[in-house]
Automatic annotation (TrEMBL):
Species name: Streptomyces axinellae
Any one GO molecular function term: methyltransferase activity
Keyword Transcription: no
The keyword Methyltransferase is assigned to this record: yes
Lineage, highest ranks first: Bacteria, Bacillati, Actinomycetota, Actinomycetes, Kitasatosporales
Keywords, alphabetical: Methyltransferase, Transferase
Protein name: Methyltransferase domain-containing protein
Length: 218
C-alpha cells in the first residue's frame, strides 16, 4: 500500500465515499451536520472490523466549522463534494478548508455546473424547466446569484487562498438515464470509459451536470 493519507470529508452523507477510503488504508475524518445521517454512518461503522473503525472519525458539524475542530495543516486531502453550493457562506467555507490543508495537500471540490444547468431539462424534453434554467434577461446592475460557483470565479478565489486550481473535470457529461439502463458488462464498461474521457475533454466537460475542481496547496 502507498502512503496513508489524512483525509477530511466535508458533508459526509451516509459515509460511502469515506468508507472506501478507510478500507483502502487511509485515515478519514468525516464532518456531517445531519444527526440522522450521522446515526447511519455510526451504524455502518459498527459492522466494520476494528481496524476500520479506528481509522474513521465522525465529527458533527459542517464546512463552516473547520476552524473550531482542526488546526492548520491537519489534512493531506480535503473533499468537499456537492455541499459548497449549500453553504451559508461559501467564501469562508472554502477558505477554512484551504487552511486545514498541509503543504502539498489536495482540495477536491464538486459543484453543480450552473453555467449549463439548462442542458439536462432540455435533453429530457422539459421545455418549461429549460426556460426556467435559462432565466430571463438579467436586470442591468443585478448581481449574479451563482457568480461564486462559476469556474472563473472559483479559479480566481482558489488562487487567492493558496490552493490554485491544477485540474478540472466534468462529471455526468451524458444523460444520467443512461446509467440506469440494463446493460451487460461490456456496455457498462464502455459507458464508464466514455464518461471519463468526455469529462476530461473540451467542449464536452463544459456542459456536464457537475464540475470537479482540484486545487493544490503549494
Amino acid at each position: 500500500m502507498g502512503r496513508r493519507l489524512r483525509v477530511l470529508d466535508v458533508g459526509l452523507g451516509e459515509g460511502n465515499q469515506s468508507l472506501r477510503l478507510v478500507r483502502a488504508g487511509h485515515q478519514v475524518t468525516g464532518l456531517e451536520s445531519d444527526p440522522a445521517l450521522l446515526d447511519r454512518v455510526r451504524g455502518s461503522l459498527e459492522r466494520e472490523p476494528e481496524g476500520i473503525r479506528e481509522r474513521f472519525r465522525v465529527v458533527p458539524g459542517s464546512g463552516q466549522d473547520t476552524g473550531a475542530h482542526f488546526l492548520p495543516g491537519t489534512f493531506d486531502v480535503v473533499l468537499c463534494h456537492d455541499v459548497l453550493d449549500q453553504a451559508r457562506d461559501p467564501h469562508s467555507t472554502l477558505a477554512g478548508l484551504a487552511r486545514v490543508l498541509d503543504a502539498g495537500g489536495l482540495l477536491s471540490v464538486v459543484i453543480p455546473n450552473v453555467t449549463a444547468r439548462a442542458m439536462r431539462p432540455g435533453l429530457a424534453g422539459d421545455w418549461q424547466g429549460t426556460l426556467r434554467a435559462l432565466g430571463g434577461p438579467a436586470a442591468e446592475g443585478a448581481e449574479d446569484p451563482d457568480r461564486f460557483l462559476r469556474l472563473e470565479s472559483l479559479t480566481s478565489f482558489l488562487a487567492r487562498i493558496g490552493v490554485p486550481l491544477v485540474r478540472w473535470y466534468g462529471v455526468g457529461v451524458f444523460a444520467p438515464g443512461a446509467a440506469e439502463d440494463a446493460e451487460n458488462a461490456e456496455n457498462a464498461e464502455a459507458r464508464v470509459d466514455a464518461e471519463e474521457r468526455a469529462g476530461r475533454t473540451d467542449p464536452y466537460r463544459a456542459v456536464a451536470a457537475s464540475l470537479h475542481l482540484c486545487g493544490a496547496r503549494g
